[in-house]
Here is the input.
Amino acid sequence: MKKQFNTLLLLFISSLMLSQQQKHTVMAKETLYGLSKKYNVSIDDLKKVNPQLNSRTLQIGEILNIPDKKASSKANEYLTSNTANNTQNIENTQNLDYFYITVEPKQTLYGLSKKYHTTIKSIIALNPAMDKNGPKIGEILKIPANSSLENSNAYNHVYSDDKKDQEELKINNSDSKEEINIKDKKELTSAKDDPIETNKKENIENQNDKESDILSKNKLPENGLQNDAKDQSSSQADSEFRKDGVNVVLFLPFHTGESSVNPERRIATQFYSGVKLALDSLSNRGKRVHVKIFDTSNDNKFREIVNTYDFSNTNLIIGPLFKSNLLTLADKIKKIPIISPFSSSDDLDEHENLILYNTKDQILAEKVTDEMLKKYSNEKIYIVYDEEHFKTAQFIQSLIKDRKNNAEVILTKNAEDIKPDQNLVTEEYNKIYALLISNQDPVINKYLDTITSFETNQVQPISLFYSSLFDNKKYEEKLINFGLLYLDTNYVNEFGFNEQKMMNLYKKKYCHMPDKYAITGFDVTYDILSRVDEKGNLSNAIMKAESKQVSNKYSFRRINKNGAWVNQEARIIQLLK
Here is the structure.
């Protein structure tokens, strides 16, 4: 009940602020801190009227609500003086049959009914005090709690070559290495191996409206397998798959029929929004794709689908997202290419029909070593690692020793062990290399504190992974001066032509900017279907070709003679003035 009270109280505070506010379009280089100073409001108040900022950073082009300073003060005063009374009121009025929303600009009763899969009549019945002309901006409304996805286990889409009101996005092929040197950038948090597991703890309550919006704009049809794979015969289940296009099965954990907040559902809906945009774009190029979508949130039903569904006409499978489900599917399906969008676990390596899109740490290690040794001239090398990445640190040490057998390479878990290398005769400092191999914030913080205490001519900082701490105001300017170099598989250059085109199309379709899961959904779907020929086949030559998508580059090699296809690419980023 306390949580319900807090939710309603925040909604009330937001409505106070929304009633007196202006708009601001985010420009390049702007930060929350800068906007708070510009408009003389707190960062907390900005987040209250722009709840999407609780779970991500600013995005260029998005429109923010700017609360009036007086309204903010009034809201804070209300918060401190009326808590007890409102707790009692909310406890008396809270009901499991509905939930609350705050009306945003341009929202109408019709739009709300479509967004939450309910009727105008139901909304009016729950909100008798609402103005007869419709809801007002900032007004708090009750929405029926049974407004959710239709409860079904599989759906069908067919993407033909019919032209739609969208632009074409072309694949870029290049054999050259790309190095991006940029000070101001748009970065999506890198998630290694299995980001679904590592992101389950993030705050996602503010994503509910976004998910409902995505699913309402991409309404999942009800004419697929209903609830149980056994409900249709193999011929029925496969009837929509024809020979006039590429037949794709998509496995995602939508958790249909569930009303509770679920991190897997959020990831699935965002990923699917990117898939949909990619399919639309490919359709405009004349590519005909038939897609069948299965909800994999129930492990038992997933195994049942795998065992009973007729995959004989399927050309390609995208998903599942979890390693355990991927192994279950790959053990059963041996010939059809199976795409793993996120997991690149070594447990998947022995399945020759698996295609792993997330670049392995080993490949990143080889790339960072190549880059470091380009300018290497007998400098001392420190490698700072955490317990999880000890083997990766040893691997890089061996790579360096194989090519520079006299190199002094020091492995340490403590960044404070890094020391400047001073020539005792000349008293001048020799530059050292300090390589970070960790995605744990305490380790990264200590590394950055140590590195930024040196002079810029004393050390070259390098990181195997991107960290959001690189953008922290405490370190950002110093790291630019040092010329920090790192590898990234989720870098989005918002100044790039194709990147801007994709993000603009996405915003036009969904009214918000894509997150990292949406971009991955787009990249993976667009890339693999661009490689598939008209008969649904993937040749070795086309798998080895390099392509550049929105967040990463892709070219594939088999991990061994009969092993999985593994992405060989990553972007090399260097911060420069």
Observations:
- The chain has a mean pLDDT of 77.
- The radius of gyration is 26 Å.
- The first strand starts at residue 21 and ends at 25.
- The chain is about 35% helix and 15% strand.
